Amino acid sequence: MHMDSILVKLGEAVELGKVDQGSPYPPQLKGQPGADELAKQAIEEGLKPTDLLTEALVPAMDRVGQKFSENKIFVPQMLMAAKAMKAAMIHLKPYFQSGDVKTKGTFIIGTVKGDLHDIGKNLVAMMVEGGGWSIIDLGVDVNEDTFNRTIAENPGAVVGLSALLTTTMANMEEIVREIKAAHSDTTVLVGGAPLNEDFCKKIGADFYSPNPRGAVEYLKQFAA
Ligand code: B1M
Fold first, then answer.
1. Domain spans of the chain?
2. Which of 64, 110, 200, 204 is surrounded by the fewest CB atoms within 10 Å?
3. Mutation test of ligand 1: which of 69, 161, 164, 207 has the most ligand atoms closer than 8 Å to its C-beta?
4. Which pTM does this prediction carry?
5. Helices then strands (H, E): number in the chain?
6. DSSP 108
7. If you measure from the C-alpha of residue 103 to the centroid of ligand 1, how many angstroms do you get, rounded to a whole number?
């Protein structure tokens, strides 16, 4: 298959929630390869993992978000798209994780309480790990107590918070406040689609990155 058409098909598979060849959903793609097979094939044919992300997977999720905003699809379809995206990401993981030995420090990451979106958070975790950090991924819907307990158990760790909802940005503010109150010297990075630099400053976080790459670059200053 031509490289461009693999990316197009991969994007479509994610957008339509086609996880793998065996999955019955969506009916119109029955028997067709899904995100799993297409991502694997794209990598095997030499496409760069970052191109898969920026040219197929992330734009596909943006189209999903757009269709959801327009009431053309609903939560179950969004969920299937996320499942397909994760099936593709499994094939990218080894490429982002390879590289440095994990010696630069510990990076604690989680999606803030009330928020279940984890794809962006997982990408950040994957790439920071590839940048040589040990990762403690606390998952989604994480409260301030869990962050603070984990920081106490891992002195010197840097913390990353992700939020995808305007409603959970408020929770992020609360979590940053509680982290700084309990561990004032802990560096906190924040990210997620609805955030910006001003919000980061307002809530007293140390750094805002719109993407995983920015987080990796910022963390280089802490390198031992
Ligand atoms: Co939801 N959702 N969702 N959703 N969802 C959004 C975020 C939304 C924008 C869709 C829309 O309306 N257009 C909208 C939010 C509106 C708002 O608040 N302004 C929305 C909504 C409304 C909801 C629900 C409330 C829907 C409902 O139930 N009525 C509900 C909330 C559930 C909850 O969290 N409590 C909900 C549920 C879900 C699913 C569970 C179905 C599913 C998530 C599944 C999962 O993650 N496992 C889902 C999905 C898939 C989306 C969209 C379509 C895609 C999100 C995604 O994965 N993007 C999303 C629309 C969109 O984003 N276009 C949407 C791809 C990912 C790579 O990007 O996560 O932005 P992103 O991460 C980026 C950057 O933001 C950054 O790096 C990543 C890579 O570039 N980044 C960081 C993220 N974290 C970072 C941390 C850093 C640094 C960078 O440092 C620490």
1. 1-102, 103-224
2. 204
3. 164
4. 0.95
5. 10, 5
6. E
7. 31
